[in-house]
Structure formats: structure tokens, C-alpha cells
Amino acid sequence: MKKNNPLASLLPGLLSAALLLAASPLSAAEPLKIRFGVAQVGKGGVPFSNGGVAGLADQRKALQQELEGSGVQVEWFYFKGAGPAVNEALANRQLDFAVQGDLPAVVAKAGGLDTRLIAADNLLSSTYLVVPADSPARTLNDLKGKRVALFKGTNLHLAILRALKHQGLGERDFRTLNMDFATMAAALTSKDIDGAWFDARAFDLQASGVGRILYDTRAVDPRLTRQGHVLVRGEFEREHPELVQKVVNALVKTAAWTSEPANRDAVLALWANSGTPIEALRAEQEGQSFQRRYSPLLDAFFVERYRTTVQESRELGLIRGDVDVAQWIEPKYVDTAVDRLGLRARWPAYDASNRPIAR
Prior knowledge:
Elements: H1 10-14, E1 33-38, H2 53-59, H3 62-66, E2 73-78, H4 82-91, E3 97-101, H5 102-110, E4 115-120, E5 128-132, E6 147-150, H6 155-166, E7 175-178, H7 181-189, E8 195-198, H8 201-207, E9 211-216, H9 217-220, E10 228-233, H10 234-239, H11 241-259, H12 264-271, H13 278-285, H14 290-293, H15 300-315, H16 325-328, H17 332-340
Parallel strand pairs: 1-2, 1-3, 6-7, 6-8
Antiparallel strand pairs: 3-10, 4-10, 5-8, 5-9
Helix pairs in contact: 2-11, 5-15, 8-13, 11-17
């Protein structure tokens, strides 16, 4: 750990977020339940996400359909506390599966949490710096010394640090404030802050006239993007590998449905149930390939981005230990589902530089 590193204070809190779930051990007479956590929540706490395949699988009851007749039940939980809260639930054996971003999962794994990455979900996600609509700022440098908010511990955090480094800046160049997304939006509306880093919510703020997107990481360099995944608790995988395969089957089927151009409007409409206006979602997805962003493959690009996340997290003092990414990632479930469903031609594999690999 680097001396006087301002990020060091993040470590104790990443696995200590408050939970709304109550632990309730199952008796032998109770049916087996699959508990799925989502590191996101909709406006006003509604249990929907505004992006990704897993949230669509929930709305479309894809897991229930795959498990029909097995007696296995499915429960979904959405976390305002994002990745850190999901980590806490996993550590307390209150979740079996989770969808979250790269940084929180790396922090948890480096801290000893027993998980396996079993599918990609929501690749190449951008991070947006939003300023008040009437702000005179036009570049990141214009905000040096100003009040800029971010949600620490989420997978946006490392992407923000990457973007700042790319511009020759650091977190200390700003009066950095740690806020969740709802608090940031309110503070931006009241102009109590000069800028804030958001995910797709940025387009909602821009459409409503509250803010203006000043910086888009994906537009600058794909290597500045965030990656998402679905993981399973290691103990659950060892005890129920057949159920893990069924869950991944459902996710792959949902990803295939999502990637069909004819379903694009239906996908956006389901994401809009989170409270994010469909116009904002459409703007965030403009020019993006659903086939690429929502590919479930754990290919060379995915592996390399997670190796980079581990390396950068160590360099920044976000983690102390190391993570063997090759051992952490388990592609057999996705590969089996893709082959059984005849979807090998649907998603090309990408190399470490995000170029499609010719077959």
C-alpha cells in the first residue's frame, strides 16, 4: 500500500456496505433458491436495471423458464450500494449469483472472496463527466480545483482514474466528493457541485436540461471503458454445477434475443422500466452494436481487460493481494451454452486489442 494514498480509505468500506437482505438458512424441507444480485437499482429504488443482459433475463423470467419443472426458485435483489453492497452479500452467503462491474469484483477476489466469472455482460461501457448545463467548463482541465463527485468503489471508479491519467490528471487535481448516483444528480441540479461522473444516467440529465456531458471515455479510447460480468459464488458452483449451466443457458438465450436488431426497441423499453427515459437510453446506445456490447463470451479481450484491472488496482493501492485471472474466469458454461444453442456464429471472439478473430 502506498503511503498517504487517498484511495486507501476505500478498502475497508468495500466489503462493509449495509444490506437490506436478511440471512435465512434453508431447512431440508424448503425448496432450493437461486439468489441473484444486481449491482444497480432504478429510480426511486424500483427493482430494475437500465442496461445489461441479466436485468433483461429477470424481466423476461428467463431463469424461471430454464428451471421449469426443477422446483428451484429464483429471487432477484437490486442494490443501491452497487458493487460493494453486492460483495458484502456474497461474503455473507446471501447471494449465489451476481452481475456487477470489474473493479468491485477484483477487490473482493483479491480480498479472498470465493467467486468464478462465468459470463460477460455489458462490455465497453462508457463513463461520462457531467457538468451543469450552463457551466463554462469545456475540458477536464477547466474543472481543476473544482468540486467533482464520483461513486467510489463502483466499477466507474477505476475507469475515472484511467481517464484522468490519460489526460495527465489525477484525483487530487479536483475537490473530489464521494456520492451515490442519486445524490450526485440532486447536487448537480442544485449546483452544489461543479461536475459528476455518471454511467448512462448522464443522458437523462442532459435531456432534462440539468447537465451537459463534457467527457465520454469510450469516445476517447476503448481502453478507458468498463466491463461487466456475471459471477457465481464458488461454493454454489461446486455444489450445483448443473444449475450454473442452466443459469448461463438462460443468460445466453437472453443475450441472443438482445442482439437481434428487430428487438432493439423492446430491449430499450424493458430497460426504461428502471425510470430512465427511453430517449436517454437510446442516446447512450447510439452507434453501439448490441451484438458486441452484450456478447457473453469470455474471450481474449475480456481476459486482458480484467488482467489490466488487476494490475492498475494494485498500482493504485486499491488491492493488496493479486488475482490469477486465468483461474478466476471459467468459460466452459458459456461455451457449452453457445454450442448447444447453435449460436457460435452469433458472436465473434475478440483479441486483446478488441479486434475480431477470424474463424
